[in-house]
TrEMBL record:
<keyword id="KW-0418">Kinase</keyword>
<dbReference type="Pfam" id="PF01513">
    <property type="entry name" value="NAD_kinase"/>
</dbReference>
<dbReference type="InterPro" id="IPR017437">
    <property type="entry name" value="ATP-NAD_kinase_PpnK-typ_C"/>
</dbReference>
<comment type="function">
    <text>Involved in the regulation of the intracellular balance of NAD and NADP, and is a key enzyme in the biosynthesis of NADP. Catalyzes specifically the phosphorylation on 2'-hydroxyl of the adenosine moiety of NAD to yield NADP.</text>
</comment>
<comment type="similarity">
    <text>Belongs to the NAD kinase family.</text>
</comment>
<feature type="binding site">
    <location>
        <begin position="191"/>
        <end position="196"/>
    </location>
    <ligand>
        <name>NAD(+)</name>
    </ligand>
</feature>
<feature type="binding site">
    <location>
        <position position="178"/>
    </location>
    <ligand>
        <name>NAD(+)</name>
    </ligand>
</feature>
<feature type="binding site">
    <location>
        <begin position="150"/>
        <end position="151"/>
    </location>
    <ligand>
        <name>NAD(+)</name>
    </ligand>
</feature>
<dbReference type="GO" id="GO:0019674">
    <property type="term" value="P:NAD+ metabolic process"/>
</dbReference>
<feature type="binding site">
    <location>
        <begin position="76"/>
        <end position="77"/>
    </location>
    <ligand>
        <name>NAD(+)</name>
    </ligand>
</feature>
<feature type="active site" description="Proton acceptor">
    <location>
        <position position="76"/>
    </location>
</feature>
<keyword id="KW-0547">Nucleotide-binding</keyword>
<dbReference type="GO" id="GO:0005737">
    <property type="term" value="C:cytoplasm"/>
</dbReference>
<dbReference type="GO" id="GO:0046872">
    <property type="term" value="F:metal ion binding"/>
</dbReference>
<dbReference type="Pfam" id="PF20143">
    <property type="entry name" value="NAD_kinase_C"/>
</dbReference>
<dbReference type="GO" id="GO:0005524">
    <property type="term" value="F:ATP binding"/>
</dbReference>
<feature type="binding site">
    <location>
        <position position="249"/>
    </location>
    <ligand>
        <name>NAD(+)</name>
    </ligand>
</feature>
Amino acid sequence: MSVTHPMYNTIALVVRPNTTGIEEPVRDVINFLKQGGYSVVLESDTAEHLGITDIPSMSVQGIGERADAVVVMGGDGTMLGIARQLAAYDTPLIGINQGRLGFMTDIRQEDMLPVLGRILGGTHKAERRTLLEGRVMRDGKAIFFGTAVNDVVVSRGAGAGMVELSVDVDNQFMYNQRSDGLIISTPTGSTAYALSAGGPLLHPTLGGIAMVPIAPHALSNRPIVLPDSSEIVIELKRGKDITVNFDMQTFASAATGDQIHIRLSPHTITFLHPEGWSYYNTLREKLHWNEYPSTDGKI
C-alpha cells in the first residue's frame, strides 16, 4: 500500500557493530532525522559500540514500546535479529544496506537520505511478513523456544553422520527421513538457506511454509509447501550433535527423542520499502534471477 501523510515521530536507529567507516553515515542519518523534526533514539548496543552519548538510547523493549519506526543500518543478519525481537510490537522496519546481499535492507547508502525522507514522510510501500515459532520438547517439557523470520533448521553436527527424523503434520504422519537435516522456511526464508538446498521461491505474501530436506538419502525426498496453518512436529530418531537453529542466529542442542514443534507465529513484521519497490526486481538484482548467460553480444 502507499500512503501520503506523515505517520512517524520517534525513530530508532539500529546499526550493525564493527562496520568499518559506519560512523559518518550514522551521523548523517541522525542529523537528517533531527533536522526533519523527528525524535531520534539509539538501540543500547548501537550507542555503546559507536560511543555515541549525545543521543538517547534504550533497550529493544523500550524501542518497541516507544518508537514509531526503526531504521536498520546493516545487512540482512542485522535486520533478522532486530525483526525477531520487535515482532511482538509490530514496529515498522526500514533497511539501509551495509551488507552484501541486502534482501531486507534494500536502501542503498548513497540514496539513503532522500529515500528515507520520502518513506518517513508517508510515501512508501508497506509489506507484512510472517514468522515461525518453535519449541524443543524433551520428556514432555519445553527446553527451548525461538522465533524465526527466515527458517528453523534441524541439522546434524560437523563430522557426524546423517540424522533420522520422523515428521508429523497436523497430527498426521508425513514421513521418516534420513538426511543432513531439514529446513522449515517462511516465504521470506525461501530465498535464503532453503533456496541453496533446492527449495522453491515463495512470494512473501503467500500463506505457506516450505519444508526442504538437506542432502536427503532418498532422491525422491523432495521439498513440499504446506499451508501456514500447519502444526509441524519433528521427532529426532537418531543422530549425533544435532542442533535446532532459528535464523542461524540462536540455536539449541537437541538429543535423540526430542521433538521440535513448529507453527506460524501470531506476530508479523512490517517492512517499509521505497515507493515503486518490487519483489521481482529484488530477485533480479540480488539473485540475478532469470538472467540469460552472457553470449558476448550474440543472440
